[in-house]
Design brief:
By secondary structure, this protein is α+β, with helices and mostly antiparallel strands. It contains 25 helices and 19 strands. The strands form 4 sheets. Strands 9, 10, 11, 12, 13, 15, 16 and 19 form an 8-stranded antiparallel sheet that branches. Helix 3 crosses helix 11, helix 9 runs antiparallel to helix 10 and helix 20 crosses helix 21. The longest helix is centred in the N-terminal third of the chain and has 34 residues. The chain is globular, with a radius of gyration of 32 Å. The chain starts with a helix and ends in a 19-residue tail after the last helix. The C terminus is likely disordered. The structure holds adenosine-5'-diphosphate. The site of adenosine-5'-diphosphate has 20 residues, from strand 6, strand 15 and strand 16.
Length: about 750
Amino acid sequence: MAASKSLLDSLKKPEPTNFRMTDFRRELHLRHKREEHAKKEKLRALQESKYVSRYAITIDTSRARSNCDVLRMSIKELGFKEYPFGRKDNCCDVHWHACHFEENPEVFGGKVNKFPGMSEICSKMTLFRCLDIMRDLFPTDYDFYPRTWYLPAQFHEFSCEIRKMHERRVKPKPTFIIKPDTGAQGDGIYLLREPNEYSSLSGKCHVAQEYMSNVYLIDKFKFDFRIYVLLKSLEPLEFYICQEGLARFSTLPYENPTNKNIHESFMHLTNYSLNKRSSTFNRSDRDDEGSKRTLTSVLRRIAMNGHDSNKVWKSIERIVCKTIVAIVPEMKVEYQAAIPPGKTGPSCFQVLGFDILLLQNLKPILLEINASPSLSLDSEQEVSPGVFEYVLSPKDEEVKYPLIRDTLLHVVPIDKLKYFRKKKKQRLLKKLKASTSQKGKRPDPPVKQRTSIVIIKADESDEEKREVNVTQQMSEMHMDVDSHGDGTARDVNSDDERESNIKSDTELDEEVDNYFETKLRESCLKQLYPAIYDEECERYRILERVAGLFIFFLGIRGSLRIGPTGFRTFARKCRLNRKGMTNASVDIMYIDLQRRWDHMNPERTSGSGIKSIGLCYQGFLDACIEIARRKFYAPTKIEMLENLVDHCELNLNLRDNDLANNLPRLHFRRLGLQYRQGSMYAMPRRVIDQMTEETTIEDLLKAHEKKLRQPSREDIEAFLRKSRRMIYQPSSGSRVISVTKSPDSE
Ligand code: ADP
């Protein structure tokens, strides 16, 4: 009875509420789902890694947008593996982004085709500011871009300059071009002759530039060049120029600007995106005709007109080098902000588009750099009145396809590339041997001419495409076999020959090495730095050392601006107080410059779009120039700055950290002497001549000590001259206060 009662009681017990049960079930269900999903993901990743062999070179094109066509063609030709929807684990060798580095923040390895903050650096204001700084330090070398004012901040200076020109009655009447800071494709650009024609209503920042009216004309049309440059790496600096480019023509015959024609954009602007809308746009397919031509055809035309086109090309190369060297310090600052030291991140490379105008005297003028130059291969064409269609543009293909193909060849991991090619070759040789021994018949005679480009027509079926590739691979293989002999086709069917076709590993290695050497030699990309302009550009790279100091004192990792404490620490640690700088003067300088640069750069943010507070790099550079002018007097600005940077690095003991990079310069500094590229060497000539890559500092010290025992008059004079310069005080006229040894001298 009692038992049945308790049973009844238990039955009467309230059941758990419906709500709680559902909650619990939902939780269970979700957990189950999550586990299933994780399992599936694991399986997918496993399958991915199974299908993609270890040595396949993988390219993520999921964010390539308009660059996809040209990229896909190049990937196909090179036999790489494309991931059009990206890879789950984000582990591709190359990630191709259409616009910014920050497009996929989940990438922690491989390479990305954009540098952090590059679109900011290539915006007109930042670019021309970087160039202005260089012009200030090297006035004669940086004269390849128009005079620039930054509006609205410098509106007063700009209008004063126009007024002065009017007063001087400059002929022809000066014209200026106004461009929005972050504009592209000719958007928002206009010409003006009076300052009051400038409209600041949009609230945007602009640059105002001297309008270059005396331009070189071809067939009476104005044109500019689009030069492609591959910036392969920042540390160490390495960049290439593409030997083919484009020339974009205006579509109305050019006339000097007058009040009447000043608004004719088809006459004064050469942007393709603008001129293609003109009724007179010439779409000729011939290289040397039409409103878009190849760079080489225009250079040929210039040569035919009796001018030295090689000289023009050399000047363009120099402009590219000087411009890149000018923006590298900014790039380094941005780079450390996006990928602070210690954080894993991808390495970067970038294809840049330089717009260059040619003056009547054939002097090239830099107009701008495009961080994301158009890589599309199609152009708009009017098939019937009002009806437009996109068609493949042969000129774009001729220029952009080799550019991207060779860019990929340069940036993918070379070891993987070699391994990949070797495996491919081994497979083909095996296949060939098997097929010839099976059928007992000769293979088709090899194709003698190796096609470097596989053109895949839109209407080809997949099978046909595969066949094209296989035939090409076979012909390549034959050619490689033949390349050892006289170049003629050989009978690969004979037993001896067949045996010799199965090559040893070392033979294959050698062949693959040769293959890449020739591929890179035949590349349309020519290395400018360090191969050709290393020495010439060395002296312009002083600002990278200033950027190094700035990064050193940033304080917060990943920041773009230095705070007041950071700036004070800079002054203290670099012992600027010994040079007579008080804490108060350091603080005043900081506040003054921070305000000035906030006013100058109201729109500037970091690459990730965050606006931080403090003194930006350009402000810090201004501070360094000011301190150098006050406390490290020397005959030229660059020498003053060098003295300051030497002093700071010496006090921070930075010199030994970058020993490997700056070996020659460090030898000099360690000896308490100054290093000047190509000009003043305080070091005895004999010692310099003996210097090799292997020379250690100790060797040099010994050599110098020997020399110091019997110093020549010349050496003593040089040394005294240098010491005087270090303590020369501009405030006390030209009087030398005292002659002491500089702190770092032996
Ligand atoms: P965007 O980024 O909008 O293309 P650009 O700086 O390239 O702006 O200028 C557009 C066009 O204007 C150039 O292709 C060139 O033809 C013309 N242009 C720009 N600056 C000057 C200048 N200083 N002198 C003469 N023409 C110029």
